Amino acid sequence: xxxxxxxxxxxxxxxxxxxxxxxxxxxxxxxxxxxxxxxxxxxxxxxxxxxxxxxxxxxxxxxxxxxxxxxxxxxxxxxxxxxxxxxxxxxxxxxxxxxxxxxxxxxxxxxxxxxxxxxxxxxxxxxxxxxxxxxxxxxxxxxxxxxxxxxxxxxxxxxxx
Amino acid sequence: xxxxxxxxxxxxxxxxxxxxxxxxxxxxxxxxxxxxxxxxxxxxxxxxxxxxxxxxxxxxxxxxxxxxxxxxxxxxxxxxxxxxxxxxxxxxxxxxxxxxxxxxxxxxxxxxxxxxxxxxxxxxxxxxxxxxxxxxxxxxxxxxxxxxxxxxxxxxxxxxxxxxxxxxxxxxxxxxxxxxxxxxxxxxxxxxxxxxxxxxxxxxxxxxxxxxxxxxxxxxxxxxxxxxxxxxxxxxxxxxxxxxxxxxxxxxxxxxxxxxxxxxxxxxxxxxxxxxxxxxxxxxxxxxxxxxxxxxxxxxxxxxxxxxxxxxxxxxxxxxxxxxxxxxxxxxxxxxxxxxxxxxxxxxxxxxxxxxxxxxxxxxxxxxxxxxxxxxxxxxxxxxxxxxxxxxxxxxxxxxxxxxxxxxxxxxxxxxxxxxxxxxxxxxxxxxx
Lengths: 161, 433
What we know:
The structure holds two protein chains of two kinds.
Chain A: H1 2-36, H2 44-57, H3 60-65, H4 74-77, H5 81-115, H6 128-132, H7 134-160
Helix pairs in contact in A: 1-2, 1-7, 5-7
Chain B: H1 3-19, H2 24-40, H3 47-56, H4 63-77, H5 79-90, H6 97-110, H7 116-133, H8 138-149, H9 159-168, H10 172-200, H11 222-240, H12 246-263, H13 269-303, H14 305-316, H15 320-337, H16 340-357, H17 362-376, H18 384-392, H19 399-422, H20 425-428
Helix pairs in contact in B: 1-2, 2-13, 3-13, 4-12, 4-13, 5-6, 5-7, 5-11, 6-7, 6-8, 6-10, 7-8, 7-18, 8-18, 8-19, 9-16, 9-17, 10-17, 10-19, 11-12, 13-16, 14-16, 15-16, 15-17, 16-17, 17-19, 18-19
């Protein structure tokens, strides 16, 4: 189970990395096409917009795993260890709840776009369910990662007792 | 429940979440969800992913990962050290030359990299040991790098300005152009302060000779510094003259930075992997906060908090300068406890309507807010640059040593805010496009 969660968050992270490289490639291609050859492409800007959303949501679980998200730890650092553990557990539970909630509504939005066959209004007619799907994917990974950390936390507490 | 009670509850929820150490993006997201739940019920939460998606799918935002990528390439290539070495050889006859060269190098590095810690870390790694070896006072050696490193928050391409532009609905290109003159003025103010200090208290910053700089046998650092300066002009010039959008110029910048890194033989497989890894992490961290801040902004609009706040301030009849001072103090205090990205994203939707009520230009406010953020990163207890400099300083350097050294520069930034408030034309002087 834990291995599956780890693979899942790593997979979403790698997709985000691919989105960054894809964005660099597409914008560079667009600059060359527009300014050197005078023939701008039709859909490059639209594709980069999908990539930027992917970059924002897909890596959140992997970053959370390595405590890479910004948080204010000034107050918790002043607390005794027992209180600090309690705050950490509460923080993980809240993060998990937030992750699953956004996953739920994100999945609803994605499924709705899929069922209704919503496409982008541009010439590309990009299927919007694919663009929306990065939100539930990223937040599902975050929720699962939180579950993973809750279990690790409880096991640690058990061990201490 | 009335909107005022919901607003207070949301702010309380935000602070409680942050106090227990939850990530800022989770704190913002959860407090927004609490607010939406109380205001419109459970079904209204279906708007949350839609708000996140609609406002994040923006070509303007593409500049963020690309400028971060450019900064990471330059950071890994060690170009900051070359820029510092090149400038300090040119200025060595001046008393306090190493400190002045550090400010200059940080300003140039800031023009290539959108985040403050990269400049502070990369220049500091070379400059601090050299200054200490030359007999500089430790507070000055560390304080000057921490403070000058923060110039990256103001000098374009600043990631903070891109995010401000997105939330405020202002042109990122205009913000970049507006940041040029204030960035140069603040760098000059810092350098003038160091020259005066070196003149009156030479024991704090002794002179150095060319032999002490150990330049013999080293490759001439100007060989890579000149192309780096040309890259800065290419990136900023293309935005200024309207040739390219910030996102396009960021892509040009990435290619230029890759070419310089390749020339320096720094593009190993490990380095490329590190560049992509760090860019993904920084971008993901920033965009996660942005996505939640957008939902928070959506809630504030629904609750009409900015309008209510403006109405209350107008009703009280406060003088515009007292409101401005209160805003600046609020920004600095927020920055003392939060990172600058969170400060910009949380404060902008709340404070911008007040600024507009007093007929101040939003572009001007973006620049002044960036300067307040510069103060924040050099102020304890959560001054990010202070920690970075403490970490890279040789020997046992306390956080207070760095903070003491940075304090005069904090006062210079306060003076700069006063200057740009009294003369807003200094910010808006460069014609846009």
